């Protein structure tokens, strides 16, 4: 069992940065790949980024490549999402989720249905 709690969301001006954190409970955190998803009002939830259990592999949605960075600290049971050069279209609820590492390496990291555990989300609002 893994419980996830996101933090770090807020209101930022276009061009600004935010760093989201996702704190996990449970001793098996380092057995899971981790992902970030987001859901804007009236839209479906979409994949943002994912990281392997070791931190040695990462994937990003094309829309955030070069601006967002996912990382993790297994000793602290925390995964991060550094978001730079934010634009209003990034406004959404951001959710972290845990994925069995076998599914991560099978290429399922972008499928939200494959994730076992989800946090409650943190809101990011980017003003123009």
Q: What is the fold's blueprint, element by element?
A:
Blueprint: E1 3-7, E2 10-13, E3 18-25, E4 32-39, E5 46-51, E6 58-60, E7 68-73, E8 78-83, E9 92-100, H1 101-108, E10 117-118, E11 122-127
Parallel strand pairs: 2-11
Antiparallel strand pairs: 1-3, 3-8, 4-5, 4-9, 5-6, 7-8, 9-10, 9-11
Name the descriptors.
128 residues, mainly beta, 4-stranded antiparallel sheet, 1 helix, 11 strands
Structural description of this entry:
The protein has one helix spanning 101-108, and strands spanning 3-7, 10-13, 18-25, 32-39, 46-51, 58-60, 68-73, 78-83, 92-100, 117-118, 122-127. By secondary structure, it is mainly beta. The longest helix has 8 residues, at 101-108.
Question: Could you give a short description of this structure?
Answer:
The chain is mainly β and 128 residues long. The chain is built from one helix and eleven strands.
Indicate the overall shape. globular
Beta-strand percentage range: over 45%
* Number of helical stretches of at least 4 residues: 1
Largest beta-sheet characterization: 7 strands, mixed
What is the CA-CA span between the terminal residues?
40 Å
Q: Name the helix and strand elements from N-terminus to C-terminus, one letter apiece.
A: EEEEEEEEEHEE
- Total E-strand runs: 11
Q: Helical content, roughly?
A: under 10%
Cα radius of gyration in angstroms: 13 Å
Structural class based on helices, strands and sheet pairing: mainly beta
Average of the residue pLDDT scores: 95
What low-confidence regions span 5 or more consecutive residues with pLDDT below 50? none
């Amino acid at each position: 069992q893994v419980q996830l709690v996101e933090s770090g969301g807020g209101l930022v001006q276009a061009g600004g940065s935010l760093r989201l954190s996702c704190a996990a409970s449970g001793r098996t955190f380092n057995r899971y790949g981790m992902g970030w998803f987001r859901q804007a009002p009236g839209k479906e939830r979409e994949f943002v980024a994912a990281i392997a259990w070791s931190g040695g592999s990462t994937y990003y949605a094309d829309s955030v490549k070069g601006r967002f960075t996912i990382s993790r600290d297994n000793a602290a049971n925390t995964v991060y999402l550094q978001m730079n050069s934010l634009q209003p279209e990034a406004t959404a609820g951001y959710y972290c989720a845990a994925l069995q590492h076998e599914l991560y390496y099978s290429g399922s990291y972008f499928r939200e249905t494959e994730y076992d555990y989800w946090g409650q989300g943190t809101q990011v609002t980017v003003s123009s």
